[in-house]
Amino acid sequence: MTKEFTLEDLKRVLLASAGAAEGVDLDSNILDIDFADLGYESVALLETGRQIELECRVSLDDGALAQVRTPRALLSLVNGHRNAANAQLREAS
User: Fold this and answer.
1) What are the alphabetically sorted keywords of the record (predicted)?
2) d(CA 9, CA 48)
């Protein structure tokens, strides 16, 4: 089974995809802070989503990504897709 995509994983991908806004401390408790307040707009989140898709081997719908407002919500979306993919693999074997 694939390990969970964590907040640390997300921070790494955010920094690689879109950098960090001046004055934003990604090492603080950001789980429930709106991405806009963290300095990430829709284009940055779409790029982050593409990087997550490549890394996690999942497909994230652009509409679903557009609805995600916080890191907690994005982690839930990614891990939900990963869990579904893992369940399908288990059923197939």
Assistant:
1) Phosphopantetheine, Phosphoprotein
2) 11
